Amino acid sequence: MDIEHWRKEIDDIDAELLRLLNMRARLALKVGALKQAADLPCRDPERERYVLQRLQQINDGPLDERAVGKVFRRIIRESRRVQAAITQ
User: Is residue 81 scored above 70 in pLDDT?
Assistant: First the structure.
């Protein structure tokens, strides 16, 4: 296998990641609407901690715990941003 083969694999995975991230954002919008209807805050620190801890526990690498935390903290932050947009 040459470099172009592996780059194509990476490109395919990137496209799938983007599709899944947008799907996650759509679900975050639904959760945000329910939070708004129930007059709940957009941020739920306990839930965020649970999500991060669970992902770090199920991670089998090669990304380390710190990297997983950084990536998913950003994803969570963007999910909150999307949710906040529906309340404005």
Answer: yes
Question: Which tokens is 6 given?
Answer: 């592996």
| DSSP per-residue letters across the chain | --HHHHHHHHHHHHHHHHHHHHHHHHHHHHHHHHHHHTT--S--HHHHHHHHHHHHHH--SSS-HHHHHHHHHHHHHHHHHHHHHHT-
State both tokens at 41: 């805050």
pLDDT reading at 45 higher than 80: yes
Average pLDDT, the chain: 95
Residue 43: count of CB within 10 angstroms of its CB:
13
